[in-house]
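lol so apparently i was supposed to do this last week
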Amino acid sequence: MNKLRELWLRFLFGTKEQSVEKGKIIFAKKLEKLLGLCPVCQGSFQNHKFSNFAIVALDEDQASRLEKLFVVLRQHLWDEAFKIRAFNPMSDAAVAHALFCPSGCLCWIVTKDPYELEDNIVIIEYEVLDIEQSLVLNQMINETDWAVFP
Ligand SMILES: [Zn+2]
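anyway here it is w/ zinc ion bound
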């Protein structure tokens, strides 16, 4: 695992003391609690997966970056979205996640993730994609980048 990728995973899923795997489980549980049911199939999160593909640090430069993130997500400009990786390990962040539903459709979800892992995350916006856009987004995510809901 290269250094930048390790930093990215650690920032998203856990601090030095908490392993990435443990961080993913904590995050999945928080997301499940926030959403209640899968926004795609209205069922439980069994056999569902999630991944992260964009991040904007919520620091002093956040306004234009956040605006860009929402523009590209709403317009389904995935190439552009995957380039938005402005993270600052010392600040809160807006993170774009992909939720994979076994029904075949994906959903993007932007959350506000706190710097402190123990603090609550907040859902800012999400959109259930149609099958066509779901396939496109799914193709852009490496199989190993998905985390399964516990
Ligand atoms: Zn579902």
